[in-house]
Specification:
By secondary structure, the chain is of the alpha+beta class. It folds into three domains: 178 residues, Ubiquitin-like (UB roll) (Roll); 161 residues, Uridine Diphospho-n-acetylenolpyruvylglucosamine Reductase, domain 3 (2-Layer Sandwich), CATH 3.30.465; 113 residues, Enolase-like, domain 1, CATH 3.30.390. The chain has 16 helices and 19 strands. The protein has a five-stranded mixed β-sheet with strand order 2-1-5-3-4. Strands 9-10-15-11-12 form a five-stranded antiparallel β-sheet. It has a four-stranded antiparallel β-sheet with strand order 16-17-18-19. Helix 2 packs across helix 5. The longest helix is centred in the C-terminal third of the chain and has 19 residues. The chain is globular, with a radius of gyration of 23 Å.
């Protein structure tokens, strides 16, 4: 009879003070721990899927000898993932004498709370903004505030005063955390032993060798990284896991490595950091990166998890396919590399063996003749799932398309390469006639389904329209989509 894995204790800092909780099941969410075990009812449950931001908390982690702060959704974050880290909820911000933190005080002064249900989440996102920008002497612009609050939804439509409050925080008396004390306490937590990790229900290896060994020993364990999708299996499908294997602490996989011809993004690199690396080489991706979910999701989720999950409406895969990315799969038996689109065999199915993990995503660097655009079509501009995503990457030399690479999402059971459309463009003059023929090919290449986000006919029509938009932009046309809109600055 198999031995039931042991439940372990979670230890972390909350508001700078140590917290210890014993016998926490591996599938228990951070929100459940906060509200039900610790009585922190200021953190609200709204959607239970990381979509509305009412449950936002801030997690602090030691990286390179300093604190890094990330606003995350507690409703889909597994509680064990914050073991050894620091945490702040809305109850932790005010001083003992009742003096409000600037994130709270600015919201009060700007009349930024209406029904109040979403307010704790907004406060915590603003607290993260305060730590990451105001405490570093950076100015919070209107555009920055909108981007970093994009993961918080106000059902009373009170965004203007909330944005005002975000900009006004810096004008209030400064508040700082004792980071030296936090780092010292977190160092002590890191030395607390949980016993042999092989016996634990929630395993979080620190090395790649440890991860591969754990995967070989427990091929049936549920792999998680940022848990922004697996968390929904818990909250919406009520799944429970006897054993969880978390890749997010593996040191080797938390890096972005630079090589002469490509960058290699580790599977544990957050979406925020992975997109920052992609934008560094291709600045035109900045708008698209900001639209990939809200900031709390990008702070928790990982590019490796997004790719391994293989959702047909995941936005990263069409872009990576168009960029010619490949994935590196690893096990104790060795490693293998394959084009990203070859990873998938069907709806959320892939070629990985039971003992393999997706370790790296290799992305070629841009070349001088590259022309790249990626388009996301969704019902809501911010923090929404795509109905269609199209990434077009052409190399045009001397007026001729010398290479075409196109990725599409939302049009099939898996993220797809539009190989027929690529063939319709390659080695042809970059003219309207070529584009019009390619549009016909692209619309005929896929047979998308109809669902709650869009009809199949709409998706097919939009695919062609996006390729036409790419042509118009290549001819210098501007102001033809919402991404060209820049929010006007308002004096705080």
């Amino acid at each position: 009879m198999p031995v039931q894995p042991s439940l372990q204790t979670i230890q972390f800092l909350r508001g700078g003070q140590p917290v210890s909780l014993a016998n926490v099941p591996p599938s228990r969410t951070l929100l459940e721990v906060l509200r039900e075990d610790l009585g922190c009812t200021g953190t609200k449950e709204g959607c239970g899927e990381g979509d509305c931001g009412a449950c936002t908390v801030v997690v602090g982690e030691a990286e390179g000898g300093r604190m890094v702060y990330r606003a995350v959704n507690s409703c889909i974050k597994l509680a064990h993932s914050i073991d050894g880290q620091a945490l702040w909820t809305v109850e932790d911000l005010a001083d003992a004498d009742g003096r409000l933190h600037p994130a709270q005080q600015a919201l009060v002064q700007s009349h930024g709370s209406q029904c109040g249900f979403c307010t704790p989440g907004f406060v915590m996102s603003m607290f993260g903004m305060y730590q990451n920008h105001v405490c570093r002497g950076e100015t919070i612009t209107r555009e920055l505030a909108q981007q970093e609050l994009s993961g918080n939804l106000c059902r009373c439509t009170g965004y203007r005063p909330i944005l005002d409050a975000a900009q006004q925080m810096a004008a209030l008396p400064a508040v700082s955390l004792d980071e030296a004390d936090l780092l010292s306490k977190m160092e002590l937590l890191a030395h607390v032993s949980q016993g042999p990790e092989a016996d634990l229900a929630y395993q979080s290896p620190r090395t790649l060798a440890g991860l591969l060994a754990a995967r070989a020993a427990h091929p049936g364990a549920q792999l998680v990284a940022g848990c922004t999708d697996v968390g929904l299996w818990v909250t919406k499908l009520h799944k429970q896991f006897d054993q969880v294997l978390d890749v997010s602490r593996v040191a080797e996989l938390r890096r972005v490595e630079d090589y002469p011809q490509h960058i290699a993004i580790g599977a544990a690199v957050t979406l925020a950091d992975a997109f920052a690396a992609l934008v560094a080489g291709r600045p035109q991706l900045a708008r698209f990166a900001a639209r990939f979910a809200g900031l709390p999701v990008r702070n928790a989720g990982t590019l490796g998890g997004n790719v391994a999950n293989g959702s047909p409406i995941g936005d990263a895969m069409p872009l990576l396919i168009a960029l010619g990315a490949s994935v590196v799969l690893m096990s104790v038996r060795g490693h293998r590399e394959l084009p990203l689109e070859k990873l998938y065999t069907g709806y959320r199915k892939n070629v990985m063996a039971a003992d393999e993990v997706l370790a790296w995503i290799k992305v070629p660097k841009p070349v001088a003749s590259e022309r790249l655009s990626v388009y996301k079509i969704s019902k809501r501009y911010d923090d929404d799932i795509s109905a269609v995503c199209l990434a077009v990457n052409l190399k045009i030399e001397g007026g001729t398309v010398t290479h075409a690479s196109i990725g599409a999402g939302g049009v099939a059971a898996t993220p797809m390469r539009a190989s027929q459309t690529e063939a319709a463009l390659a080695a042809r003059p970059w003219t309207l006639a070529t584009v019009q023929q390619a549009i016909i090919t692209l619309r005929a290449e896929f047979s998308p389904i109809s669902d709650m986000r869009a009809s199949g006919a709409y998706r097919s029509e939009v695919l062609g329209n996006l390729l036409q938009r790419f042509w118009l932009e290549s001819q210098g046309m501007q102001q033809i989509n919402l991404e060209s809109f820049v929010l006007d600055e308002v004096s705080p």
